[in-house]
Amino acid sequence: MAIKRFFTVIYFFIFSSFAFTQIVYEFENSLQEKRFYSLISEIRCPKCTSGSIASSDAPVSRDLKNKVYQLILEGSTDDEIKQYVSERFGTFSDYRPSLSGPNYFLWFGPFIFLAILLLIFFSKRRI
Amino acid sequence: MNQSLRFLIIIIPILILIFFTRVLLVDEDAQLATFEAKNFPTFELDDLNGRPVQSESLGGIKLINVWASWCITCLVEHPFLTKLSENNLDIIGLNYKDSDTRANAWLQKHGNPYLFSIYDPRGDLAFDLGVTGAPESYLLINNKVVGHIQGEMNQIKWENIFLPLIQKAQQR
Predict the structure, then answer these.
(1) Taking CA atoms, what residue in A is nearest to B150?
(2) Domains in chain B, start-ordered, CATH in brackets?
(3) Using a CB cutoff of 8 Å and minimum separation of 24, what contacts does A36-41 make?
(4) Domain A25-126, CATH
(5) Is B36 within 8 Å of chain A by CB?
(6) How far is B9 from chain A (nearest CA, A)?
(7) Are A88 and B8 inside 8 Å of each other by CB?
(8) What is the pLDDT of residues B59-117, one digit of tens each?
(9) Is A15 exposed, middle or buried (0-12, 13-18, 19+ CB in 10 A)?
């Protein structure tokens, strides 16, 4: 009898954690689901030093995930959703910086730097 | 050729050094001040006394402070906010994901530096404002959000971030 009670307690310890797992998102089709998971990995968690909202369980990340989910079901495009988030949380929220304005330097700066170095290297060889 | 190369070898590391010291030595608090001004989001919410909040009440210079009764750091910044309100600054609370009974009890216990507090139990207005948690503060000048501070508000942040913004607005 005591053993039975012991296992009942163990059983509750093991399975109680499942009651606290994340919300399950249900989609109309697999494309929506795919878009959801790629979007939440491209939106930066505003409360974390470096991490996407997919990897974060901060309350604001949960709100953001719910909002992305809701917007996908409402038929918003990926760009519209990113725009929606960055209007509220700043361009900082975009994990992959867009190709515009000063970000050109961010994307192509290293290549320009490499080109300069190679130029110096080869001009040095000629001497 | 040899001379220009020598010149480059010296000048490039110096430029890199200057570039990185400038980037790395920027004060983080000051960086938050580079905030893109935007209009205050539209909303339909009541205050903590159940009266609908009029958007006209957000004109002029207002400090919007996001707080909640469950928020520990809000208690830390509370004396400073009280001091600001005693110096005739208009502070409007944004009660964030809280219950009105608990929020009102909190104000009763610790004092109320706010003109009124917008009651936002689901955090909808807060989401549109870009709130990431509590406490956070926004500076509002003529219905435009011009500044944002995350975390505790204190003398240093007030003097370095919000006060210059107010002075700039008043000079115009």
Answers:
(1) A47
(2) 28-171 (3.40.30.10)
(3) A36/A68, A36/A69, A36/A72, A38/A78, A39/A68, A39/A72, A39/A78, A39/A81, A39/A82, A40/A64, A40/A65, A40/A68, A41/A95
(4) 1.10.8.640
(5) yes
(6) 9
(7) no
(8) 899 999 999 999 999 999 999 999 999 999 999 999 999 999 999 999 999 999 999 99
(9) exposed
Sorting pLDDT into bands at 50, 70 and 90, what band is B37? Answer: confident
Q: B75, B156, B84, B147: which is closest to B115 by C-alpha? A: B84
Place of tokens 């499942």: A18
Between A60, A116, A120, which is nearest B132 by CB? A60
What is the residue extent of each domain of chain A? 25-126
- Residue B21 pLDDT > 50: yes
Contact A89/B162 with Cβ under 8 angstroms? Answer: no
Using an 8 Å CB-CB cutoff, list residues of chain A that contact chain B: 46-47, 58-60, 63, 67, 87-90, 116, 120, 123-124, 126-127
Which residues on A lie below 8 Å from B123 (Cβ)?
63
Name the token pair of A83.
């725009």
Taking only the tens place, the pLDDT of each residue in B119-136 is 999 999 999 999 998 899
| CB crowding B48-87: b at 16 or more within 10 Å, else e | beeeebeeeebeebbbbbbbbbebeebeebbebbbebbee
Q: Is B132 on the interface with A (CB under 8 A)?
A: yes
pTM over 0.80: no
Distances (CA, A) of B76 to B68, B72, B114, B152, B167: 12, 7, 16, 7, 26
Burial class (CB in 10 A: 0-12, 13-18, 19+), B37: exposed
